[in-house]
Write a structure and sequence with these properties.
The chain is of the alpha/beta class and 867 residues long. 48% of the residues lie in helices and 16% in strands. It is built from 35 helices and 29 strands. Strand 11 and strand 12 form a beta hairpin. Helix 13 (345-357) packs antiparallel against helix 14. The longest helix is centred in the middle third of the chain and has 25 residues, at 565-589.
Length: 867
């Protein structure tokens, strides 16, 4: 007989190394069981089973249920209880658990196994009818909402009504008689919504709950979260079936979530939330105000000492900060979960450096562990207050900054949390859903702000006599927990060089990386910021940005309006000293480092008023008959704009084509560049210009322009009696240039990939139109795995880059190759650039630290780092 596929593992059969198969939760429970910790017995249904479930159209794969039943028997043996036994009933939790942590995104069912008989048995056994009825109330509510998709508000409303009727404020104050009628109400809601009685057979309950957890892998909120965290959709979730232990059995019971270090600051202290006489979902949902974990030390010092010992043991074992869930049932501690903790950027760098000092991890481990985006996180955010996730999305898509304000968040709010700049909640603690998810996203979050009173229906909140209505600006500080009225200017993040832990991480990263990190800088101030952040050169200086400045634009416009070369050169002579000054400032800041200057690239009409604006203006002047002089002048401009007008300007007269038609413009630019370099070298300041000819698609274009410009560079050096180390190169942004790179390298001494345009021309997408009109839909429908304007499309654009590098270096061995598109600051694209053998990546000055870290991680080969 062939051996059946193994879909189910007892906790004692697994280990931390089986995370792909057992998911994070299952692997954690298995590892704690192996370490001899008090873990309630249970078993895990594998992620493989989930994938097979989807392949078979939402049906259990062959043999799965046949393996669940004997696994349940083993669980019953270990628990010394039976599912459905009216005298001593076993109750279980059914929880999801993917490879990567997705807090609150998938479904959980607790207290499974309760019916009329087992509830009575539980009441007799515990001598606590209130506890048994409350457990059943919670089970019906959770099963109805999770398994059957009943609107949770229906149960919540009935619960609030019951408390009102009983004259109490909190759930624990409800007495058995109140809970009996509440359970009956919940069962009738279930029947009204489903048309069926609530299932009384615990085995049927278990089957339906497992099915619901598999289904929850593909809910909208789970898909949104995966898209944001870049978690693949095809991993699937494991399902963990585990004996229930109860934190709501009186004063010696409780539940909590704690971190082995502070996930906000990184301080080495137990940090988290504890709730006496409560179940786990009360902490995570944030519906009750929690106490700090230190409160457990006061209530139960022995249990606290035991927990502290396990926390230290687990951190040492995993060599990382752990996020632990635990329950205390009548003085007995049970460990439910351990996983790598979500943390802020501040905490991430501090913890990594501290662990190196403690000799827990190596410098290489520390560099691999900090996510590049964590270096960008700021602690504060400002925006208009909004009170539901859909409004946050709607306003965010319109470009408005928003702060999502809720009583508490739940997993269905995740799409709004993605769009918001920050999150503010009235209830909940440091381990509530809002705090966990926000930390993972790098959003500032203030939770449990009990001083505020949120009224979602009226769309406002109030605090200390001040009322904030929807749309009013507020600022929240995720580090201090302060909330301010208005848009309080947040202080620019201090330079990472002044942050001891971050500068250590970056120093270690620099020792490990091969790729250099340069910066895109159009002005001396950009270059100064780039140097401050550790840039090793300027990979792109866009000269047209200098032309757009107010005092220069009239000269540029006069040059474009000129009808003869002679007239144009007259205006260019006025621009020459201005351009020379620009380049001098950048060369001075980057003394001794290379500076790549791109010659004029955009179409000339971009420097003139728009066609629509001119038509409107001339029509108005004609209609009113006022100011004939101005009319004549505007008509002249209109005629020139119409002459320059193109159907598709991004593929029209720009880049190298402008240099060929109007060589006098780029002659002036080259003169300005070399004169600036000569001036500085005379003053013993090392200037190293590299002149980039953009948009070349053929070697002939490059040869033509090179022949026009090289004599200018040589003449200036001769005139000034100074030698300048300079290069001529090109930007590879046309597929043909990549495919004929061997020829192009005959003329170009360096290549720089302009991946924004290379992506547009490879896909045939106009970026602005694509991102506005259809990219989002493409991502949702998995037509594209990633937005190609954010991360390089490896199969298409990446392949063209690989051809260009290989062919270019075949012609010119020492060819310098870099990238200067926006992808230069994207960690995944940086990994590709490392793999392709580029010399450098160039990104915005502010993203230089991110690129330094990502380049080091590429060198380490740490592309499979846990999310």
């Amino acid at each position: 007989m062939p051996q059946a596929h193994k879909w189910v593992y007892q906790f004692r059969e697994g280990s931390a190394k089986m995370r792909d198969l057992l998911g994070g939760k299952g692997a954690g429970a298995a590892e704690m069981t192996r370490a001899g910790m008090p873990v309630p017995p249970g078993f895990t249904i594998t992620t493989e089973a989930c994938r097979a479930y989807y392949k078979s159209g939402g049906k259990f794969p062959k043999g799965l249920w046949e393996q669940v039943l004997p696994a349940l028997k083993i669980l019953e043996r270990n628990a010394h209880k039976k599912l459905g036994d009216p005298k001593d009933p076993l109750l279980v939790s059914v929880r999801s658990g993917a490879k990567f942590s997705m807090p609150g995104m998938m479904d959980t069912v607790l207290n499974l196994g309760l019916n009329e008989d087992t509830t009575k048995g539980l009441a007799a056994l515990t001598r606590d009818e209130r506890f048994a009825l409350d457990a059943r109330r919670r089970f019906v509510q959770m099963f109805g909402k999770t398994v059957k998709g009943i609107d949770g508000d229906k149960f919540e409303h009935a619960l609030q009504e019951a408390k009102k009727k009983a004259g109490v404020k909190t759930d624990p104050e409800l007495k058995p008689e109140h809970l009996r009628s509440l359970v009956a109400r919940f069962l009738s809601i279930y029947k009204e919504e489903t048309g069926k009685e609530f299932p009384s057979d615990p085995v049927e309950q278990l089957r339906e709950a497992i099915d619901a957890v598999f289904k929850s892998w593909n809910t909208e909120r789970a898909k949104t979260y995966r898209r944001m965290e870049r978690i693949p959709d095809d991993l699937g979730t494991a399902v963990n079936v585990q004996m229930m232990v109860f934190g709501n059995m009186g004063g010696t019971s409780g539940t909590g979530v704690a971190f082995t270090r502070n996930p906000i600051t990184g301080a080495r202290e137990l940090y988290g939330d504890y709730l006496a006489n409560a179940q786990g979902e009360d902490v995570v949902a944030g519906v009750r105000d929690t106490e700090p974990i230190s409160a457990l030390k006061r209530h139960m010092p022995k249990v606290y000492a035991q927990f502290e010992r396990y926390a230290r043991q687990l951190e040492k074992h995993y060599k990382d900060v752990q996020d632990l869930e635990f329950t205390i049932e009548r003085g007995n501690l049970y460990m439910l979960q351990t996983r790598s903790a979500k943390r802020t950027g501040e905490a991430a760098v501090n913890i990594a450096v501290d662990m190196v000092k403690e000799r827990l991890i190596t410098k290489k481990d520390a560099v691999a562990r900090v996510e590049p985006r964590q270096l960008e996180q700021l602690g504060a955010a400002s925006g208009g207050a909004v009170f539901d996730a859909d409004t946050a999305v709607e306003w965010g898509k319109q470009g408005k900054a928003v702060i999502l304000v809720r009583v508490e968040t739940n997993p269905n709010d995740v799409h709004g949390m993605v769009e918001a700049k920050g999150i503010l909640t009235q209830t909940g603690g440091t381990a509530s859903h809002a705090a966990l998810v926000a930390r993972g996203m790098g959003r500032p979050c203030v939770v449990g702000a009990s001083a505020i009173d949120v009224d979602v229906r009226q769309r406002r909140f109030s605090a200390n006599g001040t009322t904030i209505k929807e749309g009013d600006e507020i600022t929240i500080d995720g580090t201090t927990g302060d909330v301010y009225v208005g848009n309080v200017p947040t202080i620019e993040a201090r330079s990472l060089n002044q942050h001891p832990a971050a500068s250590s991480i970056l120093r270690w990263a620099d020792e490990l990386r091969r790729l250099e990190v340069w910066a895109n800088a159009d002005y001396p101030r950009d270059a100064a910021k780039a140097r401050e952040n550790g840039a090793q050169g300027v990979g792109l200086c866009r000269t047209e940005h200098m032309f757009m400045e107010q005092e220069r634009l009239p000269i540029v416009q006069a040059m474009i309006m000129a009808s003869t070369t002679q007239e144009r050169e007259k205006q260019l002579a006025r621009l020459l000293p201005i351009q020379r000054g620009d380049f001098e400032g950048i060369f001075k800041e980057m003394a001794g480092l290379p500076v790549i200057i791109r010659l004029i690239d955009p179409p000339l009409h971009e420097f003139l008023p728009s066609l629509e604006e001119l038509i409107r203006e001339t029509t108005h002047l004609k209609d009113t008959g006022e100011n004939p002089t101005l009319l004549a002048e505007r008509e002249k401009v209109l005629a020139r704009v119409e002459e320059l007008h193109e159907a598709n300007p991004m593929l029209g007269l720009r880049g190298v084509r402008l240099s060929i038609l109007y060589p006098e413009i780029t002659r002036m630019q080259v003169r300005a560049i070399i004169e600036a370099a000569c001036d500085l070298r005379k003053r013993k300041i090392d200037a190293r210009p590299e002149i980039m000819i953009p948009l070349a698609g053929t070697v002939a274009e490059l040869r033509t322009v090179h022949a026009e410009l090289k004599p200018v560079a040589e003449a200036v050096q001769k005139e000034m009696g100074v030698k300048v180390p300079y290069k001529f190169g090109t930007m590879i942004e046309i597929p043909r240039a990549a495919l004929t790179a061997g020829e192009i390298a005959q003329e170009a001494e360096f290549f720089s990939f302009g991946t924004n345009d290379l992506t547009q021309t490879t896909f045939g997408f106009s970026r602005d139109d694509a991102e506005r009109a259809f990219i989002v839909r493409y991502l949702e429908q998995k037509i594209l795995p990633r937005n190609p304007f954010e991360t390089i499309d490896e199969a298409g654009v990446g392949r063209l880059m690989a051809i260009a590098v290989k062919e270019g270096r075949k012609t010119r061995k020492d060819l310098e190759v870099g990238i200067c598109g926006e992808h230069g600051g994207d960690p995944d694209s940086i990994h590709l650039c490392h793999k392709l053998g580029l010399n450098y990546v160039s990104c915005s000055p502010f993203r230089v630290p991110v690129a330094r870290l990502a380049a080091a991680q590429a060198a380490i080969g740490d592309s499979t780092k846990d999310k």
